[in-house]
Structures are given as C-alpha cells and as structure tokens.
C-alpha cells in the first residue's frame, strides 16, 4: 500500500501557542487528504477534507479559524492548531486518498499534548 | 441519519475463531471497510467489500450483505498480536467514510 508520513509524531506545547502538523504522501499523488481527531477510547472523528489547491471542507462543529488546513501540493497537507488549549490535546491522524480503490492511507498520527 | 453499529468489546482465545459484526445505515453506499487499530497507533487497512459475498485474505475474511446493511470480519487462528480495535467504516455517496466506534478485541492465552 501507499506510504503516508506525519510529522511530528509527538508534540507538547503550552496553552496559547500554535502547532503545525505535516502530512506527506510519499509514493503517490493524493488528490484528497483527510484530517481526523481521536480522543482516548473513541472512534476517529473527521475534522476536514481537503482537495489539492482548494479550501478545505470542515465538518460541523470544527472551527476553521482554529484548525487551519493547507493542501498546497499533491503530496503535502498541513494542519495548524492555532492558540491551542488543553482540550485540544488529542491524537491527530491524516489520511490520503484519491486512489482508484477509494482506500484511504493513514499516516502514523501525531499525539498533541497542550499544557 | 447515518449510523454504524458494532460491539464495543469481544474476548476470544488464542487459536480460536472470532466474528465481529457491523451493521450500517448511510446515505448511499460505496463500500465497506475494515481497519485494525492497535492502541496509540493509526488504523491500518484490512479489507474493502463493495459486492455481496465473502472476501478471504489469509487469516482474515470479510463478508458483506448490501440488502441487509451488514458486514462481518472473521479472524481465524487468533494470535495474541490480533488484540486490537477493529473499526468498521461505510463509504457514503460522497465517498466519505462513516466510522463505527470500533470493537476492542481481547485475546486470551
């Protein structure tokens, strides 16, 4: 299957600061990238869907001004958590799609802890 | 509304067989996915069914009945490393994945 990387894998930041998470598809061109959030012992929650070169589509309840998504190329999407607060502490996972089989290829995830 | 139901937790014995069921109701249907997720890690793809029937892939098999809105994941010859959460997800008419809450599978020696 395709390989998707995420960086950083873990990040600890202070309340009020911003954090950028990168998601890269290493061996295929991802026309669509998805950003998920997962709280402990809960299922994946889709935050937004982004298509290369266009604005992301956010799910209901997700603040687009707080979670900035950029998908400038077919291999890179970034999620910036602005003015992070402790309640934003979570596991953030990206996935890349656009393949013929509709499968989404997941990155390894980023664990964000806001103190 | 859109809904995916699967059991919260199941327990099985090493070497045995276990079947994890999933029922779904989504706006349109473009396939049913099963993912495995170990604690603290991202999900990994197991199977994709879009036609009725059984798909076998090694120790894992997945079944789909579109008329019943039903799927199951069958795991044979269970190993301790199979202890994980198993996520069922239905792809709707917009090609979005609607996720179940996951089934935590506990394997006992």
Descriptors:
heterodimer; A: 115 residues; mainly beta; seven-stranded mixed beta sheet; four-stranded antiparallel beta sheet; 11 strands; B: 109 residues; six-stranded mixed beta sheet
Query: Can you count the helices of chain A?
Result: 0
User: From the alpha-carbon coordinates, what is the Rg of chain A to the nearest angstrom?
Assistant: 13 Å
The whole-angstrom Rg of chain B is: 13 Å
Poorly predicted runs of chain B are none
Describe this entry's structure for a reader.
The complex is a heterodimer of chains A (115) and B (109). Chain A has 115 residues and is mostly beta strands. Helices cover 0% and strands 51% of the residues of chain A. In chain A, strands 2, 4, 5, 6, 9, 10 and 11 form a 7-stranded mixed β-sheet that branches. A 4-stranded antiparallel β-sheet of chain A has the order 1-3-8-7, with no helix packed on it. The model of chain A has no long low-confidence stretch (mean pLDDT 90). Chain B is mostly beta strands. In chain B, a hairpin with a 6-residue loop joins strand 4 and strand 5. Chain B is globular, with a radius of gyration of 13 Å. In chain B, 34% of the residues are buried.
What's the topology here?
The complex is a heterodimer of chains A (115) and B (109).
Chain A: E1 4-7, E2 10-13, E3 19-25, E4 32-38, E5 45-51, E6 57-58, E7 67-73, E8 76-81, E9 90-97, E10 105-106, E11 110-114
Parallel strand pairs in A: 2-11
Antiparallel strand pairs in A: 1-3, 3-8, 4-5, 4-9, 5-6, 7-8, 9-10, 9-11
Chain B: E1 3-5, E2 9-13, E3 18-25, E4 32-37, E5 44-49, E6 53-57, E7 60-65, E8 70-75, E9 84-91, E10 97-99, E11 103-108
Parallel strand pairs in B: 2-11
Antiparallel strand pairs in B: 1-3, 3-8, 4-5, 4-9, 6-7, 7-8, 9-10, 9-11
Explain briefly what this protein structure is.
The complex is a heterodimer of chains A (115) and B (109). Helix content of chain A is 0%, strand content 51%.
């Amino acid at each position: 299957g395709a390989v998707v990387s995420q960086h950083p894998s873990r990040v600890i930041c202070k309340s009020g600061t911003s954090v950028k998470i990168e998601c890269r598809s290493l061996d295929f061109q991802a026309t669509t990238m998805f950003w998920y959030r997962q709280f402990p012992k809960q299922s994946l929650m889709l935050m937004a869907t982004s298509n290369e070169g266009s604005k992301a589509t956010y799910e209901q309840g997700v603040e687009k001004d707080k979670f900035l998504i950029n998908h400038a190329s077919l291999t890179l999407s970034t999620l910036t958590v602005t003015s992070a607060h402790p309640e934003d502490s979570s596991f953030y996972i990206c996935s890349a799609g656009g393949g013929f089989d509709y499968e989404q290829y997941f990155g390894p995830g980023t664990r964000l802890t806001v103190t | 509304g859109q809904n995916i139901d699967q059991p919260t937790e199941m327990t099985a014995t090493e070497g045995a067989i276990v079947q994890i069921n999933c029922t779904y109701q989504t706006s349109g249907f473009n396939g049913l996915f099963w993912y495995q997720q170990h604690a603290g890690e991202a999900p990994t793809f197991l199977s994709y069914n879009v036609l009725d029937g059984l798909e076998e892939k090694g120790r894992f098999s997945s079944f789909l009945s579109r008329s019943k809105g039903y799927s199951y994941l069958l795991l044979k010859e269970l190993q301790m490393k199979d202890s994980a959460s198993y996520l069922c997800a239905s792809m709707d008419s917009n090609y979005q994945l609607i996720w179940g809450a996951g089934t935590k599978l506990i394997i006992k020696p």
